[in-house]
Every structure is written in C-alpha cells, then in structure tokens.
Amino acid sequence: MTSIGIVGAGIGGLHLALYLQQHDVPATLYAELTSQQRLAGRLPNTAVHWGPTREREHALGVNHWDEQADDWCVRHVHFYGMFGARTMTFTGMNDVPGIGIDHRIYTSTLLEDFLARGGDVVYGAVMVGDLPALSDRHDLVVVSAGRGSMVELFERRSDGRPFTEPQRFICTGIFDGIAPQQPIGSSINVIPGSGELFQLPFLTFGGRKTALLTEIIPGGQLDELRTVRYEQDPVRFNATVLRMLRTSFPHLAELVDENIFGITRAEDVLQGAITPTARRGYAQLENGKWVMALGDVSLVNDPVLAQGANTASACAFLLGEAILADNLVFDEMWCARAEARMWDYQRAAFEWTNHMLRTPLPGNATKLITTACGNPEVARSFINNYAAPQANWDILASDARTDAYLTRHGGGPVTPPSAGDDRATTASTR
Amino acid sequence: MTSIGIVGAGIGGLHLALYLQQHDVPATLYAELTSQQRLAGRLPNTAVHWGPTREREHALGVNHWDEQADDWCVRHVHFYGMFGARTMTFTGMNDVPGIGIDHRIYTSTLLEDFLARGGDVVYGAVMVGDLPALSDRHDLVVVSAGRGSMVELFERRSDGRPFTEPQRFICTGIFDGIAPQQPIGSSINVIPGSGELFQLPFLTFGGRKTALLTEIIPGGQLDELRTVRYEQDPVRFNATVLRMLRTSFPHLAELVDENIFGITRAEDVLQGAITPTARRGYAQLENGKWVMALGDVSLVNDPVLAQGANTASACAFLLGEAILADNLVFDEMWCARAEARMWDYQRAAFEWTNHMLRTPLPGNATKLITTACGNPEVARSFINNYAAPQANWDILASDARTDAYLTRHGGGPVTPPSAGDDRATTASTR
Known about the structure:
The structure is a homodimer. Chain A folds into three domains: 4-65 and 103-163 and 276-355, 3-Layer(bba) Sandwich (FAD/NAD(P)-binding domain), CATH 3.50.50.60; 169-272, D-Amino Acid Oxidase, Chain A, domain 2; 363-424, no CATH class. The longest helix of chain A is centred in the C-terminal third of the chain and has 26 residues, at 332-357. In chain A, a hairpin with a 5-residue loop joins strand 4 and strand 5. In chain A, helix 9 (308-325) packs antiparallel against helix 10, helix 10 (332-357) crosses helix 13 and helix 11 crosses helix 12. Chain A has 14 helices and 19 strands. The first copy, chain A, is globular, with a radius of gyration of 22 Å. Chain A has helices spanning 11-22, 35-39, 51-60, 103-116, 131-137, 149-152, 234-248, 250-253, 308-325, 332-357, 363-374, 376-384, 389-396, 399-408, and strands spanning 4-7, 27-31, 48-49, 74-80, 86-93, 99-100, 120-123, 140-143, 169-176, 185-191, 195-204, 207-216, 262-263, 269-272, 277-278, 282-284, 290-293, 299-300, 423-424. Chains A and B meet through helix 10, helix 13 and helix 14 of A and helix 10, helix 13 and helix 14 of B.
C-alpha cells in the first residue's frame, strides 16, 4: 500500500496526515518537536482559521475549540487619518466565525490526536540531505516545513517574488489588559501609508486573550514599534505599543487597562518580516524521485490577510484528495496535476495579499473598501471572502473587475472620502 | 446581467446553453440549422453517452431516452487473430449503461427543449468575421462549432498534434439486419494492426437499431472498406461490410440476416478521417475581446474510445460552473482558469485515445487488456473508466503506472497470449 512521508507538523502537514489517516493511507509524520517542546516554545504566529478551515477541522474530528469561538462573527474595519481620527468604518459579519488560536496549542493537540489514532511520528529535524533516504522509504514525500536549502529545493516561480523586500515589519503578540471590541470580534485598523493593526480574540494558554498584530510600513506613523525589540527591553516595548494605541488608534486605547497592559509572557511575542514568495509545488531529487511542497515551503504570504494557515490547510486537503484519486506512481505527471490544483487556490491568496500590501493601496481596493462603508452587502461580501480568497481576487484583479462588481452591486461612482468623514455602514458600531 | 453567446448547437453548445438557462444566465444560441434541417441531415456521428454525460442530461432535464437504454450495461470486448479466430475475450459491465443515440434526434430535441423553456436561438451560419459583432453583443462568446478559420482562431497546442495524419479511416453507419450481441450491449472487436469494429445498440429513426463503427488502419485486413464509398455504390458497400464481418468477425456475421442487411437510409452513413488535434481553449479577437472554445473546436478526438461527445458535455458543465462562479469580466485571467479546468479533463481523454490509436498497440495497453481477460475486476474497471478517462489514463500513462496497477490488482506478471488461446473472464460470454 502507498506510504506517504510528511516532513513538518504545522497545520498543513498535520491536516494532510490526519486526512490520510482517516482514509487509511499509511502516513509517517516527521516532526521536529514533540508536543511538550512546542508548548514550551515561542509564539509562531497569530493565525485566524476561517470557515472552510474550520469545516476541514470538523471533517478531521479536531474541532476542539468550537464552543470557545462561536461568538466571534463580527469584523470591525476602521480606517484612520491623521491624529487617530477615524475616516471610515464598516462592520461585516462572518457567516462562520473565524477562530484565532495559538498554534503551539493547536499543533500539539492535533499531533496528539494523530498519535492517539495510531499515527506514526518520527521526531527530530529533517534536512534536505535526508530526503533521498525518505524518498526510498515512502512512495511520496511531502515537505511542509523547512528552512534554507530545504525550501530552495523548490524553484521560485517566475512571478513568485513581486517585491524585492518585505512590505511590512510584523510585530505580533498576546496581550493582557485590552478588552475585545464589542460586539465581540476582531478589528482591522488601517492607517493608509503606515500599516495595519489587527486586534484578535485569541485562544491561548489560560483561555481567551487578545492578540495584537501590527503590520508596520517602514517610515510611517507606526515605525517606532519596528525598532523596539521585546526581548531587549520589555517595559519599553509595552510602553511603545500603548503609546501607539493612544496616538494612532485611540478607539482601541479606550479598551486598555493600563495597570495590567502588556505582553502576557516572554514567549508570547514575535517580531520579524517576510518577503512574499511563491515556489513551485514539486521538485526532483538527485535520485530521480519527486517531492511535493506544502504550506510555507511553497508559499510565503504576508499575514496581513490571514491567508497562510488557511491556504496550507486547503492545500493539504487538495493534496490528500489527489493522493486518494491516483496513487499508482507519484511521477512528474502526478506532481504537476496536484501542483496545478494547489496553485489555483494559492495564486488567489498570494495575488490578493500582495495587492493589499502595496503602498499606496491600489485605487480599486480603496474604492471597494470605501463602498463597503456605505453598503452592507459589499461589506459582508468583502469580509466573508477572507474565507474564499479567489472571490476577493476576482473582484480586485483589475480595475475593470472592480468596476463591474461595484456597478452590479449598486456601489455606483465613488468619490474618495474627505478627512474626518467617519462613514459607516448601517450595521456598523462606531 | 451577464449575457453569453454560444456559437454552435452540438452537444457541447446545447449542454452549456441549457445549463445557463437553468441557472438564469441569459444565453443566446447561434445554431446553423433548425431542428427540421438537422433531422433531415446526414448522420453526424455514432456517439455513446457514458454515465456522467447521462447524469448531466438528468440534471438538465433532457434525459428523454432513459427507458429505452437501461438494459445496455454489457460491453463485450473481443480480440481477433488471423482468419477471424478470437484470441481473447472479456466482458465488462458498465455501472451505468451508456446510450448510443443519433445526434440528429438528440440535438434537435435539446434545441426544442431550450426553445420551449424560453431560450433565445438565432439560426444561420456564423463565420469568424461575425465574432467581433457577437463579442460586442455578449459578455462572453463561446465557439462550440466551426470550420476552417473559425477553428484556426484557437492556437494549436504545442503537444496538440501527436500524429501528422489520421490513424484510422472511419466508416460508421446504421444497419438493418444485424441483431445485438447477447446479453444486449455493445461489442468492441479488435484486430491488432488492422483496426476495430464497434457494434452499438443505437437509438435512431424508427427506434433501436445497430450502428457499426469501423476504424480502419490503412493497409490492414479491413482496408477494402476504406475505398468503397456508400454514395457511389450502395450495393457494393453493403456487400463489402458483410464480407468483412464474415472474414474478420465471424461471431458477428452469425448475427446477420442477409436478406435485409445493409445501411438503413442513404443519410445514415458517414465515412472520413480525422487527425487528432488539441487547441488552446481561448483566443483574443482583434477588437481585444476574448472568446472560448468548446467541443470539437478545441479538441478533435478520434472516436475509437467514444470520448468526443462526453468530453464536450463535461467541458460544457465546467465552463458553465466557471461562468456562475465568476462573471464580472471575461478577461484573460478568466479564460485561462476556465481553460485549465477543461484541459485537465480533455488532456486525459486526448492522451488515452491517442495511446490506444498507436500501431502496434503499446505494450502496457496490451498487458492491461490481456489481464482484463482473466481478471473481472480489471475488466470492470477498464470498461467503467470509459466514463472517467482520467482513471484509465492514470493507469496507462507509463509502463510504471500500468505495472503498479496490475501488481496492486493481482494481475501479476503477464505473458502474451498465444494464437488461438481464447481467454475469457469468468463473466464472459463467448
């Protein structure tokens, strides 16, 4: 029987392993860290799982957190101008609530699920030099985690590096002392030209807390936070975040209890930057065997639209379905078809994310968001399409597409908002 | 609202038009001929509709012939050696019976269905020079029929012409005076190096008759039929077919009533040859608009595996689904995604058909068929996969794939059959 080796036990590798296990396809998971090591580690991201990812979790029987998240439908979107004045606001409802969840807990739990169901796990780091031996042991090797030469095994796509450098400096962490916005949900707070701040209800150690993900455009209004490293000066870091809230996002500062505000634990903060990169979905080893790429190995997405974990999960299922449909020989023909199916999903997430990363924000994106402020249907669609990146990219891929969409949905001609014009949808809460 | 213009009212154009009509997308069908003109015309093909096509007909509410076909599950496959001796025989059951149906009746009926449901039909030939005007009238134009420059609008794929000339001369017609093989079903009769004869229960004028589709390899044992044109000498044509049955397919000759054997009507015969060709699924007009290709316009398949009509129907639904999913602007991005989905289906039908057309038959195909003769599971799978060309192509795309399949399904090592060795599955009827 077909045997699949999966290198890396992030959400992509785990969803694939659990999917194959559920369909009686022997799979071995090569995990660098044990569950205990993961739980003791640093915050890896502040991912949000959208509806389709939650449906996949349900299908895999790993939807352990449903009851703690089912009230998080609302997404507040605010645009700010100078001096923290909100210029536009809209609120959309997710048809299915997203879950912000700590991946130390999430991946540990799923790894234990896989083990408890009889799954085969091999611990320890796998290097690119180990792949030939793995490819002899398995019919197919899927690489879903790795660094350096492991990732570079997969050729960068010709259109896979739209920017030469990171477009945001990312600072994310779990905070005590900040209440969620009401009605409870996440908020997206945008300062054009300076960056974005995401406030997320977040399941982590000790229950529900708040994650603040700041996406900083160098040289903008949020730039100070870029240069303050938590591990070098925790007090100054927390003070800088609080000052940023007061100065740039005063509505959020109102939710802060200054007596306890700050990063929850030293491990609960992550600062860095990534350059969006898309790689080919498969590669050939020197021994002639083919290996597939999954998750961050094939697609590095800026977290600004929360597409990374969701794309990895979607692709894990696409790959699992491809394995069930045809598992005679994992040759180039197989890899090319599986890659095409994954890329069809990945491309929309990648292109849409990169479009929204541009400075200044492209005119059609501004137009769409401005319309959403006065049009609950457009707002609802934009918010829900975070779960269906192709749908938002279909609308934003060209000016003609955005115009066609807005014409059809009654947006009509749109004039840019003037300063201090706090537009809102009928459903919004200012 | 989106308006779609569909040029050509064969099975592909009709299935797309009916699909869009069912989903309230305005569609105009440009049909060269009226229903009455079609009914009076020449036999266009002797297509068989496999299970998935019948499911699509059911979804469209045009499954008018179910009751006349539900006993046609059996497919008899015979291989012949010298002097009409059968060397191998197997019988497979289609899970869903195929229907052989006269497309003069079929397309006329579906055209009337479309009209009766309020469909918009414009009669008359459409030339390539008419496309710019149509592209101004509709949001998307789909070209599903055409000749010459209309077809050449769509670029031939780099791998879209595997043979420089036709691999078979095709002679197909509807016959009186030949009974179906029992249990009732179709029979595939192969003479390696000379060609194939398909005996099909066929719904046509006056009810169920028998179609004989002969695929002639020039220079082989069936070559005489290639040079006899029915319209030049009907008596000699009928006599040549009968002589071919007696000489090369004596089991079939036993089913003939010589007193009435022959082509039913002068319009009920078709002789010709095609060179398998795959073209790109979309093209740009000089006015900048994009048009899509459907059916024979993008893929010309030899009928040896009965994939043409089924592929056109499958692609009509893929195109319809693509139109429902995204209909903001039918730009190059839209066309490329829709084409990729269609080509994923088309490629398997095309590659598998061309593989089976090769002379001599490739070793792995011989091995698979030889195994089917002694292995009912392999026989059943091979027969049913006519409805799922990707599945058979997955098995036949390389020797390694065929070996993996046969190893898994207990075929074991296979020795070529010796002359006169009339192998059969346990379920076969000799």
